[in-house]
Model the fold of this input.
Amino acid sequence: MENNRLILDVLEGKDVERTPVWLMRQAGRYMSEYRKIREKVSFLELCKTPELACEVTLQPLKAFKLDAAILFSDILVPIEPMGVDLEFTPAPVIANPVRNPQDVQRLKPVDPEEELPFVLEAVRLIKDNIEVPLIGFAGAPFTLACYMVEGSGSKNFLEIKTLMHKNPDAFFELMEKVTESTYRYLQAQINNGCSIVQVFDTWAGILSPSDYKTFVYPFVEKLVNKLENAHIIYFAKDSTTFYKDIKKLNCAGLGVDWKIALNDAADLLDNKFVLQGNLDPAVLFADQKTIADEIDRIISEAKDIKGHIFNLGHGILPKTPVENVKFMVDYVKEKTADA
Amino acid sequence: MENNRLILDVLEGKDVERTPVWLMRQAGRYMSEYRKIREKVSFLELCKTPELACEVTLQPLKAFKLDAAILFSDILVPIEPMGVDLEFTPAPVIANPVRNPQDVQRLKPVDPEEELPFVLEAVRLIKDNIEVPLIGFAGAPFTLACYMVEGSGSKNFLEIKTLMHKNPDAFFELMEKVTESTYRYLQAQINNGCSIVQVFDTWAGILSPSDYKTFVYPFVEKLVNKLENAHIIYFAKDSTTFYKDIKKLNCAGLGVDWKIALNDAADLLDNKFVLQGNLDPAVLFADQKTIADEIDRIISEAKDIKGHIFNLGHGILPKTPVENVKFMVDYVKEKTADA
Done:
């Protein structure tokens, strides 16, 4: 059971004895235990095998005593059953990208119990093996739409922007379908044991504030309003100029990248959210004195905000020195317990 | 001679009859005239041959009657004589990246008259052939340092960030050398005929506001304060959370990407600068109705700012339809002359 409720307490606005800490992509390549498992199975196989997904989910908890677990999976897992051919090479590549109204038509919302049972089984397995809350997650509708339309990594996101501007009806229909899928997928994770869900809007930041408001925000709002029985954390990279809209979201937490000080973010957001972040993942490659200084700065910037969950400003990088991760987690715990 | 002084008048705070317009990368691959020349010479050869650099600089002026010319070159041209082996493959690759104090030691500031005479000759040639002001340009010190240290394209900029955090003395020495080179290079462009210079800080946006303030801003400030006899436009992508520092810069203009509305940018900057921007280059792939709507929005957002130079929010993309570029330029001129 959840003996450590720190992160839930923060999200519920309660006073806590210290700042909780977890890391985006905390299960991953920087850990030798993880690399050992990946020698035997592909990335997608790992996502689809509940016992292994559970095992890698637990690895960082054992190593660093983090305050939350996060389901090991990938944001693209639910787009496959929508009708998209997905491969990791190792970067994701989609053989049949969505480019026109006919492509959108052919997509169908997922049925998580039928089509993604391995994810829900992984959630139950992990839940049976941890004493901290379990975070579920999904890509935000726009970010998933970007992958589906671009079909691979993109520098300028011309395909999705052109669909959006030249064929808004098809774009909106795509967003409706992805939003419904994402809702079902996250609600199923919650129903199987996740008490927090994080919605990753990795690519929202490619847009102008006016396009974000018209084409993206309404779907995030709809998703957040439909989900029940969990705390929601929305994380959009490079999104501070969208805060006028984002501050209207009905969710408990907001992830913040390292591009803004937490107190400045809180000001723009009328201090409405618990903020999660925001150490630059590259700082973990520096010496421990620098890491400590940066953590001190972040803790001090978070002093007067509604609530703080310590995290990186983006996913941990594959070659991060493990000893620095341990140092960071211990230092955050020690430093915020003093206060 | 400069029969069309619109852009200079705006930068000098004078009232103008309409908004001036030019485009970042206005000479480039989207034009068939440019591609024809590139069939015969490599990119670096083109940069190093004054007659050809002049010819491609003039191409977009003839095609679209823009209000400024910008020297055809590349921000990496001046790093070669500093002691860096540069190739375009077509992306820039540096065979001997700067990684430690010894590498920094070996670099020397450029002597533009001796080492980059072809650039200054191109400036003089262009100047003799245009009736609009000529914009010179250079990479900002941090952006050039990023290329020199990373050695090639980078996703996470780990090398430069690690140098900065682990070896700040070497980092600062590198920045001093690059700042001095950039100063000499831009001042030589001015002395040979450029009446405006733009400083491109393409990579500043990878940093936290606190790192920008410590490691980047002081060098931009130094560069801007040293330059004489030209209007300076500073352009840093993804930099709105640095505006607290940037607004102290002693320059006339600031380039703005499409990630913030111009009126919101002006508010954060105490309306101190003429702003240049900020159409998303991807919008030029849409239909002309969408392009007109986006231009209308930008013109209306720019209504009360100190001064406006219409431009894209970043360089024009290689496959942009030429007819849409023509439509955009004509529409901006017509629309702002009405007002």
Observations:
- The radius of gyration of chain A is 19 Å.
- The mean pLDDT of chain A is 96.
